[in-house]
Amino acid sequence: MKRMPLAVAALLAACSISAAAIHYTPKYRVTVTKDKNTNYAGFRTYAWLDTHPSSLPKVDAEIRRAVEHELAALGLSRAEQPQVLATYASLTRTDVDLKAKADRNEARPEYTVGTIVVSLLEPSTLRPLLKIRADRVVDTAWIDVSISSTVEEMFRKFPGRRPAAKAED
What is the tens place of the pLDDT at every residue in 127-165? Predict the structure, then answer.
């Protein structure tokens, strides 16, 4: 009688491990690398520095639009003599779930992953002041929404950013 609950528990554990393997998706996140001696709240102006723009004009335009929107939300505006230079790099890659069971063709699940890195640089030396990186599974049918929401999430981690005020009912 005591063995029955143990057998049921073992069966449930095996089923949940199998289900987890079937629905495996890697953890993609936002990472921030910042200069500890920089007062980010003091930034008011920026200019673009083209370094590694996307080769796809639509993607380039959407990333720039999203970054400009977030910089404006932080109180920064474009200027000829900026306090910081803004730049970005992007790439896509294919991740393969090597832990998943191969299908009959020996293929494993694949994910299209987009990476966006937004950097703020000191204008005279190009010294990195801030780098925010996000890796996300990309649905190419919804690329505009993906880029916009990813950049928004990236800037939630902007150093010194105050939480948005809660709306009162």
Answer: 999 999 999 888 776 777 789 999 999 999 999 765 554
Is residue 61 a contact partner of residue 48, using CB atoms and an 8 Å limit? no
Distance from C-alpha of 58 to C-alpha of 99, rounded to nearest angstrom: 34
What residues contact 58, with CB distance under 8 A and at least 6 apart? 143
Name all domains of the chain by residue range, CATH numbers in brackets: 25-155 (3.30.160.670)
DSSP-based three-state secondary structure for 141: helix
Task: Measure the CA–CA gap between 45 and 80, rounded to whole angstroms.
Answer: 9
Can you tell me the mean pLDDT for 9-17? 41
* 59, 90 Cβ separation under 8 angstroms: yes
Report which of residues 19 and 86 the model is more confident about: 86
Query: How do beta strands 110-121 and 128-137 pair?
Result: antiparallel
Helix, strand, coil % over all residues of the chain, rounded to 5: 35, 30, 40
Decide: 75 and 113 in contact? Cβ < 8 Å: no
What are 69-91's pLDDT values in tens digits? 999 999 999 999 999 999 999 99
